[in-house]
Design brief:
Helix content of chain A: 10-25%
Oligomer: homotrimer
CATH class of chain A: Alpha Beta
Largest sheet of chain A: 5 strands, antiparallel
CATH architecture of chain A: 2-Layer Sandwich
CATH topology of chain A: Alpha-Beta Plaits
Radius of gyration of chain A: 15 Å
Number of strands of chain A: 5
Structural class of chain A: alpha+beta
Strand content of chain A: 35-45%
Order of helices and strands of chain A: EHEEEHE
Chain lengths: 113, 113, 113
């Protein structure tokens, strides 16, 4: 039995319109992120207007939150990779410090982190 | 193309019964909060009993989480504004430090923050 | 009217397959955790493969996130209690520092915390 490992990582919470979910997930995949979780059917209000998540027949207006944990040196490049997207589309990214308890589910932090 | 900006802010996660969603959102609006995200259909257990989110025919018992990011000097007044509510109703607020990457979606932090 | 209290606590976000929701909640209950919130119908991708939350007819593959706030000295024992589970099952735990505003909904921190 392996012991649980705690790693200091950056948690990204990326909130976008549901129709752009695959774009974000593809970007994470290409950045080498091996795990993420999706929260569906969010509502939100931002400077681009209100978005109501419960209108299931109008799914394009539903927001999703993509949660992932990445080594600190990967957070910056991912945020930069999202810049052109956020210049055109509604959304926001929350970044915070977390410990991740895992069994090899996330990319290893670089040595020294 | 604008560059993404990182701002240090306070993330508030406000969990209340769904029927009080509008009360909280109105309070945030009046406090000058320009963006928030709603997670619907949560279940929870607190000291006031258990609440099961999947009973969609009993929507009053469903919990919601209202996520927002505010400048640090706005967090205290919002929490104080919620005090009378939490004296009467079930719920909890989690406050944490985050960086927000955005394009003018959230209120500007006051100078010096 | 009671004043709101702020407590420094550890937030745990435990993401597991929906069929193990009760196992985790039972473990939290036995650890003395008095409050938690469940986010249902998550999707995710981890090293064990992809899990798509919107296939409601295949509910066993849906993920849930159990959010709780615990005193710091309780976080370690809970994570250790989850170790055998995570040796066998997909999932992850995010741990972060938060302030909790509450009215006696969560277990009191031990003196000196």
């Amino acid at each position: 039995m392996k012991a649980l490992k705690q790693s200091q990582m950056k948690k990204l919470e990326i909130i976008v319109q549901g129709e752009y979910q695959e774009f974000v997930v593809d970007l994470l995949d290409r950045a080498g992120v091996s795990g993420w979780t999706l929260v569906h059917n969010l509502s939100g209000k931002g400077s681009h207007g209100s978005h109501e998540g419960h209108l299931m027949f109008n799914a394009d207006d539903v927001l999703v939150m993509i949660i992932t944990a990445v080594p600190e040196d990967l957070a910056g490049p991912i945020l930069e990779g999202l810049t052109p997207f956020f210049n055109k589309h509604m959304g926001v990214v929350f970044t915070s410090d977390i410990s991740v308890t895992r069994l090899g589910k996330f990319q290893q932090p670089a040595p020294g982190q």
